[in-house]
Write a structure and sequence with these properties.
Length: 149
C-alpha cells in the first residue's frame, strides 16, 4: 500500500503508466474486449488487469495520469455498432470520471475496427472486470508541467 495512490493501481499498471510518454495511448477495456490478443501488439506487449468496473478503473488511472491537451482525440470511446451517437450508461459513467479529472470534452466516438487499430498501436491495454458492452476507451497521455518558481 502507498499513501496517495489508489490501491487498485497494482505494480504492473503503475509501472506502465510511469513508463508511458507524452502522446502514448492507454486502452481501458471491458472484459469482452480481445485484450490479450490486442495487448500482444502494443508497446508493453502484454495485458494488464484490474478486475473492477470501468468507471472505477478510470478514476484510479486519472488520479495519476495526465491527459494530452495538445490534441482533440485524447479521450475516445468505442462506438456502438450501427449506432455511433448512442451513449450507453457505461459510457456516461466513464465520461463523468473524465470530467471529474478536468476534461470537459465528450469522448470522441471511434468505429469498432478503428478502435481495435488504435488499441494495437497503444502503449498498453488494461482489461477491467466491466461486463457491460462497449466499455472500451482510449486515453492519450499528456505532460506534467515543471514546477513554477
Amino acid at each position: 500500500m502507498l499513501k496517495g495512490i489508489d490501491p487498485i493501481l497494482n505494480a504492473d499498471v503503475l509501472y506502465a503508466l510511469r513508463a508511458m510518454g507524452h502522446g502514448d495511448d492507454l486502452i481501458i477495456a471491458d472484459t469482452n474486449f480481445p485484450s490479450d490478443a490486442i495487448a500482444r501488439q502494443t508497446t508493453l506487449g502484454r495485458v494488464l488487469r484490474i478486475d473492477r468496473p470501468v468507471a472505477e478503473v478510470a478514476r484510479a488511472v486519472l488520479s495519476v495520469y495526465p491527459l494530452d491537451t495538445f490534441v482533440d482525440d485524447s479521450v475516445g470511446r468505442m462506438e456502438v455498432v450501427g449506432e455511433p451517437d448512442t451513449i450507453l450508461p457505461v459510457m456516461q459513467e466513464f465520461q463523468a470520471e473524465v470530467a471529474a479529472a478536468g476534461w470537459a470534452d465528450p469522448a470522441l466516438p471511434i468505429e469498432r475496427f478503428a478502435f481495435y487499430d488504435r488499441a494495437k498501436s497503444a502503449y498498453a491495454v488494461i482489461q477491467t472486470g466491466e461486463r457491460r458492452f462497449y466499455g472500451c476507451f482510449a486515453l492519450r497521455k499528456g505532460v506534467i508541467p515543471p514546477d513554477e518558481g
